[in-house]
Protein backbone atom coordinates (compact mmCIF):
# COMPACT_ATOMS: atom_id res chain seq x y z
CA UNK A 1 0.00 0.00 0.00
CA UNK A 2 1.27 3.47 -0.78
CA UNK A 3 2.57 5.29 2.30
CA UNK A 4 0.11 8.19 1.98
CA UNK A 5 -2.81 5.80 1.70
CA UNK A 6 -1.60 3.83 4.70
CA UNK A 7 -1.25 7.03 6.75
CA UNK A 8 -4.70 8.23 5.70
CA UNK A 9 -6.22 4.90 6.75
CA UNK A 10 -4.39 5.03 10.06
CA UNK A 11 -5.68 8.53 10.73
CA UNK A 12 -9.23 7.56 9.85
CA UNK A 13 -9.05 4.52 12.09
CA UNK A 14 -7.60 6.51 15.00
CA UNK A 15 -10.30 9.19 14.76
CA UNK A 16 -13.23 6.82 14.37
CA UNK A 17 -15.42 6.78 17.48
CA UNK A 18 -15.23 3.34 19.01
CA UNK A 19 -18.93 2.63 18.99
CA UNK A 20 -18.29 -0.75 17.49
CA UNK A 21 -17.26 -3.36 20.01
CA UNK A 22 -13.92 -5.09 19.93
CA UNK A 23 -15.39 -8.59 20.11
CA UNK A 24 -18.22 -10.71 18.76
CA UNK A 25 -20.92 -12.51 20.67
CA UNK A 26 -20.30 -15.78 18.90
CA UNK A 27 -19.43 -17.40 22.24
CA UNK A 28 -21.68 -17.29 25.26
CA UNK A 29 -21.07 -14.69 27.91
CA UNK A 30 -21.92 -17.19 30.62
CA UNK A 31 -19.32 -19.62 29.32
CA UNK A 32 -16.65 -17.08 30.25
CA UNK A 33 -17.79 -16.92 33.88
CA UNK A 34 -17.37 -19.09 36.97
CA UNK A 35 -20.78 -18.00 38.24
CA UNK A 36 -24.18 -17.66 36.53
CA UNK A 37 -24.79 -14.71 34.23
CA UNK A 38 -28.45 -13.85 34.15
CA UNK A 39 -30.93 -11.61 32.41
CA UNK A 40 -34.35 -10.22 33.25
CA UNK A 41 -36.76 -11.46 30.64
CA UNK A 42 -40.03 -10.03 29.41
CA UNK A 43 -42.17 -13.10 28.81
CA UNK A 44 -44.09 -11.56 25.88
CA UNK A 45 -40.94 -10.38 24.13
CA UNK A 46 -39.36 -13.80 24.53
CA UNK A 47 -42.29 -15.36 22.71
CA UNK A 48 -42.61 -12.74 19.99
CA UNK A 49 -39.07 -11.66 19.18
CA UNK A 50 -36.70 -14.32 17.79
CA UNK A 51 -33.62 -12.09 18.03
CA UNK A 52 -34.33 -11.33 21.67
CA UNK A 53 -34.95 -15.01 22.31
CA UNK A 54 -31.74 -16.09 20.61
CA UNK A 55 -29.60 -13.71 22.69
CA UNK A 56 -31.30 -14.85 25.88
CA UNK A 57 -30.71 -18.49 24.99
CA UNK A 58 -27.14 -18.12 23.77
CA UNK A 59 -25.66 -15.63 26.21
CA UNK A 60 -27.23 -16.18 29.63
CA UNK A 61 -27.69 -19.18 31.91
CA UNK A 62 -30.00 -17.64 34.48
CA UNK A 63 -33.37 -15.98 33.93
CA UNK A 64 -35.30 -13.62 36.18
CA UNK A 65 -38.89 -12.92 35.12
CA UNK A 66 -39.01 -9.14 34.81
CA UNK A 67 -42.68 -8.85 35.75
CA UNK A 68 -44.85 -11.93 35.46
CA UNK A 69 -44.25 -13.32 38.93
CA UNK A 70 -45.15 -10.09 40.68
CA UNK A 71 -48.36 -10.10 42.67
CA UNK A 72 -50.45 -8.09 40.19
CA UNK A 73 -49.78 -10.66 37.48
CA UNK A 74 -49.62 -13.91 39.38
CA UNK A 75 -52.58 -13.36 41.72
CA UNK A 76 -54.69 -10.85 39.79
CA UNK A 77 -57.85 -11.81 41.70
CA UNK A 78 -58.01 -12.96 45.27
CA UNK A 79 -57.45 -16.71 45.26
CA UNK A 80 -56.96 -16.87 41.49
CA UNK A 81 -53.39 -17.54 40.51
CA UNK A 82 -52.41 -17.10 36.90
CA UNK A 83 -49.55 -19.50 36.27
CA UNK A 84 -49.45 -19.38 32.53
CA UNK A 85 -46.59 -16.94 31.96
CA UNK A 86 -44.42 -18.37 34.73
CA UNK A 87 -45.09 -21.94 33.60
CA UNK A 88 -44.02 -21.04 30.11
CA UNK A 89 -40.84 -19.28 31.32
CA UNK A 90 -40.10 -22.31 33.46
CA UNK A 91 -40.59 -24.69 30.52
CA UNK A 92 -38.30 -22.48 28.45
CA UNK A 93 -35.67 -22.43 31.19
CA UNK A 94 -35.78 -26.19 31.58
CA UNK A 95 -35.64 -26.77 27.84
CA UNK A 96 -32.47 -24.71 27.58
CA UNK A 97 -30.85 -25.61 30.89
CA UNK A 98 -31.25 -22.20 32.52
CA UNK A 99 -31.74 -21.38 36.17
CA UNK A 100 -35.04 -19.56 36.86
CA UNK A 101 -34.85 -17.13 39.77
CA UNK A 102 -38.16 -16.20 41.43
CA UNK A 103 -38.86 -12.45 41.50
CA UNK A 104 -40.56 -11.24 43.64
CA UNK A 105 -42.88 -12.37 46.41
CA UNK A 106 -43.38 -9.32 48.62
CA UNK A 107 -43.11 -5.81 47.21
CA UNK A 108 -44.92 -2.50 47.59
CA UNK A 109 -45.34 -2.08 43.81
CA UNK A 110 -47.28 -3.99 41.18
CA UNK A 111 -49.85 -5.14 43.67
CA UNK A 112 -53.22 -6.28 42.32
CA UNK A 113 -56.07 -3.82 42.82
CA UNK A 114 -57.92 -6.24 45.10
CA UNK A 115 -55.00 -6.29 47.53
CA UNK A 116 -54.88 -2.51 47.70
CA UNK A 117 -58.46 -2.40 48.92
CA UNK A 118 -58.53 -5.62 50.92
CA UNK A 119 -60.18 -5.05 54.26
CA UNK A 120 -59.24 -7.30 57.10
CA UNK A 121 -57.58 -7.32 60.45
CA UNK A 122 -53.94 -8.20 61.06
CA UNK A 123 -54.78 -11.93 61.16
CA UNK A 124 -56.49 -11.74 57.77
CA UNK A 125 -53.51 -9.89 56.27
CA UNK A 126 -51.16 -12.43 57.78
CA UNK A 127 -53.16 -15.19 56.12
CA UNK A 128 -53.15 -13.29 52.83
CA UNK A 129 -49.35 -12.95 52.96
CA UNK A 130 -48.91 -16.62 53.84
CA UNK A 131 -51.26 -17.84 51.15
CA UNK A 132 -49.63 -15.68 48.50
CA UNK A 133 -46.12 -16.85 49.33
CA UNK A 134 -46.83 -20.49 50.01
CA UNK A 135 -49.06 -21.02 46.99
CA UNK A 136 -46.40 -19.67 44.65
CA UNK A 137 -43.32 -21.16 46.28
CA UNK A 138 -45.16 -24.43 46.85
CA UNK A 139 -46.10 -24.77 43.21
CA UNK A 140 -42.55 -24.23 41.99
CA UNK A 141 -40.56 -25.64 44.90
CA UNK A 142 -38.96 -28.39 42.82
CA UNK A 143 -38.00 -26.13 39.94
CA UNK A 144 -37.34 -22.65 41.25
CA UNK A 145 -34.61 -22.95 43.83
CA UNK A 146 -34.02 -19.28 44.65
CA UNK A 147 -36.37 -16.40 45.44
CA UNK A 148 -36.40 -12.67 46.02
CA UNK A 149 -38.68 -12.99 49.02
CA UNK A 150 -38.83 -9.36 50.13
CA UNK A 151 -38.09 -6.51 47.76
CA UNK A 152 -37.20 -2.90 48.62
CA UNK A 153 -38.44 -2.78 52.22
CA UNK A 154 -36.05 0.01 53.23
CA UNK A 155 -35.89 3.72 52.49
CA UNK A 156 -32.73 5.66 51.81
CA UNK A 157 -32.36 6.79 55.43
CA UNK A 158 -32.33 3.18 56.58
CA UNK A 159 -35.84 3.18 58.01
CA UNK A 160 -38.59 0.84 56.85
CA UNK A 161 -40.69 1.94 53.89
CA UNK A 162 -44.29 2.71 54.77
CA UNK A 163 -45.61 0.03 52.40
CA UNK A 164 -48.99 -1.62 52.51
CA UNK A 165 -47.29 -4.58 54.19
CA UNK A 166 -45.82 -2.42 56.94
CA UNK A 167 -49.13 -0.67 57.46
CA UNK A 168 -51.10 -3.88 57.76
CA UNK A 169 -48.65 -6.16 59.52
CA UNK A 170 -45.98 -3.99 61.11
CA UNK A 171 -42.24 -4.61 60.76
CA UNK A 172 -42.63 -8.34 61.41
CA UNK A 173 -43.95 -8.86 57.86
CA UNK A 174 -40.38 -9.33 56.69
CA UNK A 175 -39.63 -12.11 59.12
CA UNK A 176 -43.00 -13.68 58.40
CA UNK A 177 -42.34 -13.64 54.67
CA UNK A 178 -39.06 -15.48 55.06
CA UNK A 179 -40.56 -17.97 57.50
CA UNK A 180 -43.48 -18.74 55.19
CA UNK A 181 -41.22 -19.23 52.19
CA UNK A 182 -38.86 -21.44 54.18
CA UNK A 183 -41.69 -23.64 55.45
CA UNK A 184 -42.51 -24.81 51.95
CA UNK A 185 -39.02 -24.68 50.43
CA UNK A 186 -36.57 -25.70 53.14
CA UNK A 187 -33.61 -25.93 50.76
CA UNK A 188 -34.26 -22.93 48.54
CA UNK A 189 -31.98 -19.90 48.55
CA UNK A 190 -33.94 -16.97 49.91
CA UNK A 191 -32.90 -13.40 49.14
CA UNK A 192 -33.61 -9.91 50.35
CA UNK A 193 -33.40 -7.60 47.30
CA UNK A 194 -32.96 -3.81 47.18
CA UNK A 195 -31.44 -0.87 45.28
CA UNK A 196 -28.68 1.60 46.23
CA UNK A 197 -27.12 -0.89 48.62
CA UNK A 198 -23.84 -0.43 46.76
CA UNK A 199 -23.88 3.34 47.34
CA UNK A 200 -25.84 3.99 50.52
CA UNK A 201 -24.08 2.70 53.62
CA UNK A 202 -26.97 3.61 55.95
CA UNK A 203 -29.37 1.52 53.91
CA UNK A 204 -27.02 -1.45 53.63
CA UNK A 205 -26.31 -1.30 57.37
CA UNK A 206 -30.02 -1.41 58.15
CA UNK A 207 -30.52 -4.37 55.85
CA UNK A 208 -27.64 -6.27 57.40
CA UNK A 209 -28.80 -5.44 60.90
CA UNK A 210 -32.25 -6.82 60.16
CA UNK A 211 -31.01 -9.97 58.42
CA UNK A 212 -28.54 -10.68 61.21
CA UNK A 213 -31.33 -10.29 63.76
CA UNK A 214 -33.42 -12.77 61.79
CA UNK A 215 -30.48 -15.13 61.61
CA UNK A 216 -30.09 -14.92 65.40
CA UNK A 217 -33.72 -15.94 65.70
CA UNK A 218 -33.19 -18.94 63.45
CA UNK A 219 -34.71 -17.41 60.31
CA UNK A 220 -32.21 -18.05 57.56
CA UNK A 221 -31.83 -15.54 54.76
CA UNK A 222 -29.27 -16.82 52.30
CA UNK A 223 -28.35 -13.80 50.31
CA UNK A 224 -28.78 -10.21 49.33
CA UNK A 225 -29.81 -9.01 45.91
CA UNK A 226 -27.83 -5.86 45.23
CA UNK A 227 -29.87 -4.52 42.33
CA UNK A 228 -27.25 -2.10 41.00
CA UNK A 229 -29.22 0.28 38.83
CA UNK A 230 -26.05 2.34 38.54
CA UNK A 231 -24.73 4.95 36.13
CA UNK A 232 -21.51 6.27 34.68
CA UNK A 233 -21.77 9.23 37.10
CA UNK A 234 -22.09 7.22 40.33
CA UNK A 235 -21.32 5.30 42.46
CA UNK A 236 -17.55 5.04 42.81
CA UNK A 237 -16.15 1.55 42.19
CA UNK A 238 -14.60 1.69 45.67
CA UNK A 239 -18.09 1.98 47.19
CA UNK A 240 -19.19 -1.06 45.24
CA UNK A 241 -16.18 -3.05 46.40
CA UNK A 242 -16.89 -2.08 50.00
CA UNK A 243 -20.52 -3.15 49.81
CA UNK A 244 -19.64 -6.53 48.26
CA UNK A 245 -17.07 -7.06 50.96
CA UNK A 246 -19.39 -6.08 53.77
CA UNK A 247 -22.13 -8.42 52.59
CA UNK A 248 -19.83 -11.36 52.03
CA UNK A 249 -18.04 -10.83 55.35
CA UNK A 250 -21.43 -11.38 56.95
CA UNK A 251 -21.68 -14.63 54.99
CA UNK A 252 -24.57 -13.68 52.73
CA UNK A 253 -24.54 -14.65 49.09
CA UNK A 254 -24.31 -11.69 46.75
CA UNK A 255 -26.58 -11.49 43.71
CA UNK A 256 -26.01 -8.49 41.48
CA UNK A 257 -29.65 -8.87 40.69
CA UNK A 258 -30.75 -6.05 38.34
CA UNK A 259 -27.65 -4.59 36.77
CA UNK A 260 -27.83 -1.74 34.29
CA UNK A 261 -25.45 1.17 33.77
CA UNK A 262 -27.27 4.35 32.79
CA UNK A 263 -25.29 6.69 30.54
CA UNK A 264 -27.73 9.56 30.98
CA UNK A 265 -28.70 9.70 34.66
CA UNK A 266 -29.50 13.42 34.56
CA UNK A 267 -31.76 13.17 31.53
CA UNK A 268 -29.88 15.50 29.18
CA UNK A 269 -30.05 15.55 25.40
CA UNK A 270 -27.73 12.77 24.50
CA UNK A 271 -26.00 11.38 21.42
CA UNK A 272 -24.00 8.46 22.69
CA UNK A 273 -20.37 8.55 21.65
CA UNK A 274 -17.18 6.56 22.07
CA UNK A 275 -16.34 8.22 25.37
CA UNK A 276 -19.68 7.28 26.90
CA UNK A 277 -19.47 3.68 25.72
CA UNK A 278 -16.02 3.51 27.23
CA UNK A 279 -17.16 4.93 30.57
CA UNK A 280 -19.99 2.42 30.63
CA UNK A 281 -17.65 -0.43 29.80
CA UNK A 282 -15.16 0.71 32.44
CA UNK A 283 -17.72 0.84 35.22
CA UNK A 284 -19.09 -2.53 34.23
CA UNK A 285 -15.55 -3.89 34.16
CA UNK A 286 -14.92 -2.58 37.68
CA UNK A 287 -18.13 -4.22 38.90
CA UNK A 288 -17.10 -7.55 37.40
CA UNK A 289 -13.60 -7.37 38.88
CA UNK A 290 -14.91 -6.55 42.34
CA UNK A 291 -17.54 -9.27 42.06
CA UNK A 292 -14.83 -11.79 41.23
CA UNK A 293 -13.19 -10.98 44.59
CA UNK A 294 -16.18 -12.37 46.48
CA UNK A 295 -15.56 -15.91 47.79
CA UNK A 296 -16.87 -18.32 45.20
CA UNK A 297 -19.43 -19.99 47.45
CA UNK A 298 -21.08 -16.60 47.97
CA UNK A 299 -21.28 -15.65 44.29
CA UNK A 300 -24.88 -16.22 43.21
CA UNK A 301 -24.33 -14.47 39.90
CA UNK A 302 -24.67 -11.25 37.97
CA UNK A 303 -28.02 -10.54 36.32
CA UNK A 304 -28.54 -7.82 33.70
CA UNK A 305 -31.90 -6.05 33.91
CA UNK A 306 -32.88 -6.54 30.30
CA UNK A 307 -31.52 -7.86 27.02
CA UNK A 308 -30.99 -4.77 24.89
CA UNK A 309 -31.18 -1.00 25.35
CA UNK A 310 -34.58 -0.96 23.72
CA UNK A 311 -35.94 -3.33 26.36
CA UNK A 312 -34.80 -1.31 29.36
CA UNK A 313 -37.33 -0.11 31.94
CA UNK A 314 -35.33 3.11 32.29
CA UNK A 315 -36.53 4.62 29.01
CA UNK A 316 -40.20 4.44 29.74
CA UNK A 317 -39.98 4.91 33.49
CA UNK A 318 -37.85 8.05 33.35
CA UNK A 319 -38.87 9.08 29.83
CA UNK A 320 -35.30 9.78 28.81
CA UNK A 321 -32.83 8.63 26.19
CA UNK A 322 -30.65 6.00 27.77
CA UNK A 323 -28.56 3.01 26.76
CA UNK A 324 -27.92 1.02 29.91
CA UNK A 325 -27.47 -2.58 28.74
CA UNK A 326 -25.02 -4.86 26.92
CA UNK A 327 -26.81 -4.90 23.56
CA UNK A 328 -27.77 -1.86 21.52
CA UNK A 329 -31.08 -1.09 19.85
CA UNK A 330 -30.18 -3.26 16.89
CA UNK A 331 -29.35 -6.14 19.22
CA UNK A 332 -25.64 -5.80 18.56
CA UNK A 333 -23.17 -6.28 21.41
CA UNK A 334 -21.71 -3.05 22.79
CA UNK A 335 -18.25 -2.31 24.19
CA UNK A 336 -19.72 -3.01 27.64
CA UNK A 337 -20.46 -6.57 26.51
CA UNK A 338 -16.87 -7.05 25.37
CA UNK A 339 -15.43 -5.63 28.55
CA UNK A 340 -17.58 -7.90 30.65
CA UNK A 341 -16.58 -10.94 28.67
CA UNK A 342 -12.92 -9.98 28.81
CA UNK A 343 -12.90 -9.61 32.57
CA UNK A 344 -15.09 -12.54 33.59
O1 LIG B 1 -48.82 -5.07 31.54
C1 LIG B 1 -49.18 -3.72 31.19
C2 LIG B 1 -49.83 -3.67 29.85
O2 LIG B 1 -51.04 -4.39 29.91
C3 LIG B 1 -50.08 -2.21 29.49
O3 LIG B 1 -50.57 -2.14 28.20
C4 LIG B 1 -48.78 -1.41 29.55
C5 LIG B 1 -49.02 0.07 29.27
O4 LIG B 1 -48.12 0.90 29.94
O5 LIG B 1 -48.25 -1.54 30.85
C6 LIG B 1 -47.92 -2.87 31.19
O6 LIG B 1 -47.35 -2.91 32.46
C7 LIG B 1 -46.06 -2.38 32.62
C8 LIG B 1 -45.14 -3.50 33.10
O7 LIG B 1 -43.88 -2.99 33.44
C9 LIG B 1 -44.98 -4.61 32.06
O8 LIG B 1 -44.41 -4.12 30.90
C10 LIG B 1 -46.11 -1.27 33.64
O9 LIG B 1 -46.81 -0.16 33.12
C11 LIG B 1 -44.73 -0.85 34.05
O10 LIG B 1 -44.81 0.06 35.14
C12 LIG B 1 -43.92 -2.06 34.48
O11 LIG B 1 -42.63 -1.63 34.82
C13 LIG B 1 -41.84 -2.56 35.52
C14 LIG B 1 -41.45 -1.96 36.87
O12 LIG B 1 -40.57 -2.86 37.53
C15 LIG B 1 -42.65 -1.71 37.75
O13 LIG B 1 -42.29 -0.85 38.77
C16 LIG B 1 -40.58 -2.82 34.71
O14 LIG B 1 -40.93 -3.51 33.51
C17 LIG B 1 -39.59 -3.65 35.50
O15 LIG B 1 -38.35 -3.68 34.82
C18 LIG B 1 -39.37 -3.00 36.87
O16 LIG B 1 -38.47 -3.83 37.60
C19 LIG B 1 -38.14 -3.39 38.91
C20 LIG B 1 -37.84 -4.64 39.73
O17 LIG B 1 -38.91 -5.54 39.65
C21 LIG B 1 -37.53 -4.26 41.17
N1 LIG B 1 -36.47 -3.29 41.23
C22 LIG B 1 -36.63 -2.09 40.42
C23 LIG B 1 -36.91 -2.48 38.96
C24 LIG B 1 -36.99 -1.26 38.09
O18 LIG B 1 -38.09 -0.48 38.44
Task: Please sum up the structure shown.
It contains 14 helices and ten strands.
Describe this structure as you would to a colleague.
The protein is of the alpha/beta class and 344 residues long. The chain contains 14 helices and ten strands. The protein has helices at residues 3-15, 43-48, 50-59, 71-74, 84-95, 113-116, 122-140, 164-169, 173-184, 201-216, 237-249, 274-292, 313-318, 335-343, and strands spanning 37-41, 62-65, 99-100, 102-106, 146-151, 189-194, 223-226, 229-231, 253-262, 299-304. Strands 1, 2, 3, 4, 5, 6, 7, 8, 9 and 10 form a ten-stranded parallel beta sheet that branches. Strand 9 (253-262), helix 12 (274-292) and strand 10 form a beta-alpha-beta unit. It is globular.
**pLDDT under 50 segments (min length 5)?**
1-18
The small molecules bound here are:
ligand G3I
Indicate the proportion of strand residues: 5-15%
Categorize the overall geometry.
globular
Oligomer: single chain
Q: Tell how many strands the DSSP assignment holds.
A: 10
What is the distance, rounded to the nearest whole angstrom, between the alpha carbons of the first and last residues? 39 Å
The biggest sheet, with number of strands, parallel, antiparallel or mixed sense and barrel status, is: 10 strands, parallel
Query: SSE string, helix = H, strand = E?
Result: HEHHEHHEEHHEHHEHEEHEHEHH
Radius of gyration: 21 Å
Helix content: 40-55%
Count the helices. How many?
14
Structural class: alpha/beta
Q: What is the overall pLDDT average?
A: 94
Amino acid sequence: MKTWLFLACLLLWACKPETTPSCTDADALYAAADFPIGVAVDAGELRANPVYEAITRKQFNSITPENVMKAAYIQPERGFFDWEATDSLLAYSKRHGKRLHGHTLVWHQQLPAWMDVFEGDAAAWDQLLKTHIQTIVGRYKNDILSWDVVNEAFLEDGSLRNSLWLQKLGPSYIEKAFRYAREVAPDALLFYNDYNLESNAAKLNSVLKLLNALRNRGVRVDGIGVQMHVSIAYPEPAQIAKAFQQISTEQYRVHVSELDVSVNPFGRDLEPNAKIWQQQADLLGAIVLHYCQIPQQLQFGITLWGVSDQNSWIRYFYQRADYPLLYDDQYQPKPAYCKMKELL
